[in-house]
Amino acid sequence: MALSEFSLIQQYFSSLGNAPGVVLGVGDDCAVLTVPEGEQLVATVDTLVSGVHFPVDASAGDIAHRALRVNLSDIAAMGAKPCWFTLALTLPEARESWLHEFSLALADDASMFGCALVGGDTTAGPLSISIQMVGTVPAGKALTRGGAQAGDSIYVTGSLGEGAAALCLFDESGESVAIDNDDARECLLQRFYRPEPRLQYGLKLRELSSAALDISDGLIADLGHIADSSGLGADVELNRLPIAPWLAALVEPPRVLAWALSGGDDYELCFTVPEENLPAVELLIKRGELSASCIGKMSEQHGVRCIDNNGQLVETSTTGYQHF
Ligand code: ADP
Ligand code: MG
Q1: Which CATH number fits domain 5-138: 3.30.1330.10, 3.40.50.2300, 3.10.180.10, 3.90.1150.10?
Q2: Using one digit for the tens of pLDDT, what is the confidence trace for 265-311?
Q3: Is any atom of ligand 1 closer than 6 Å to the C-beta of 123?
Q4: Are 241 and 260 in contact (CB under 8 A)?
């Protein structure tokens, strides 16, 4: 089967372009997009390389879900709404079954999260997927890393540690823990390939939160970015970290803690809340409209500190995931 570049694009990627604002999608030199009145654009890109960011035997559908969702997570962290994306696809070969599965999974998620594929690039080479996502936010309202104040409460959405635990499933060195509980394995694979972009939370928090980001490199490292950008430090109470009981049951406590603090890949939001907005945030949580836990406070003293049940400082690795 020889599929020309043009027919490949036409067949698999030209019909995912339905969304408001698309004047011209796939097929021309550039897409033409209308930005709603009073809105600003937010733009992000993430590259996934086979064997680095996902196992070489990952399915095409799984790769598509992860590639789109890690970008949506960045959009969520800005309190923005996803609109349009482009796809740079580098493929070792144009295999129809792979392309079919990949484009179907991409179309599913694009329609679920309300964004359209409006262009891209297709080349031959080692498997790599770059998605650039563009979203909109009312002018001046983007939720950045730099707005926290000393005394603001620190929250995280959902639960932590599962992204890092999932990486154990792919480690063939034998150095990681073995996870042989089938239900747990399934949950972790879901978590890795289909992280839940917290878009609805981001929109709700836009008016309530002083700073936010998504946790991709580990809580301590990422919270460190909020602290640095805001010219502050942070105190985290370890006993308040949201760790799913089923995850805690898998391995000994220090390892779970390391997963939650510095493992990365959770794609939850970490955000800070000024005291005057605490009642509104707690109400959202009580009503079930926001899944989030308060884990500590921002402080004047620089650095991220972890505190145990007795109020004692605990030494933890603060490096997070380093790409180089
Ligand atoms: P150009 O050479 O002008 O950059 P291409 O021949 O690379 O254009 O692509 C033709 C059209 O197909 C462009 O509109 C481009 O955005 C789109 N396109 C190429 N690859 C992809 C892809 N993987 N997904 C979506 N659109 C793509
Ligand atoms: Mg051109």
Answers
A1: 3.30.1330.10
A2: 999 999 999 999 999 999 999 999 999 999 999 999 999 999 998 88
A3: no
A4: yes
Kindly report the number of other CB atoms within 10 A of residue 262's CB atom.
21
Average pLDDT, the chain: 94
Residue 56 above 90 pLDDT?
yes
CB-based neighbours (< 5 A) of ligand 2, an ion = 29
Distance 4 CA to ligand 2 centre (A): 17
Residue, of 5 and 98, whose pLDDT is higher? 98
* Residue range 153-314 in CATH 3.40.50.300: no
Which ligand has the nearest atom to the CA of 122? 1
Confidence of residue 222 (pLDDT cuts 50, 70, 90): very high
Contact 132, 44 (CB under 8 A): yes
29 CB under 6 A from ligand 1?
A: yes
The pair of structure tokens assigned to 74 is 């960045």
Strand partners, 131: 46, 87
Query: What pTM does this model have?
Result: 0.94
- Is any ligand 1 atom within 6 A of the Cβ of residue 117? yes
Atom 16 in ligand 1: residue holding the nearest Cα: 119
Mutate to test the pocket of ligand 1, among 122, 123, 129 (most ligand atoms within 8 A of CB): 122
Per-residue burial over 138-171, b if 16 or more Cβ lie within 10 Å, else e, is eeeebbbbebbeeebbbbbbbbbbbbbbbbbeee
- According to DSSP, residue 206 is labeled T
Q: Measure 4 CA to ligand 1 centroid, in angstroms.
A: 13
Residue 79 identity: G
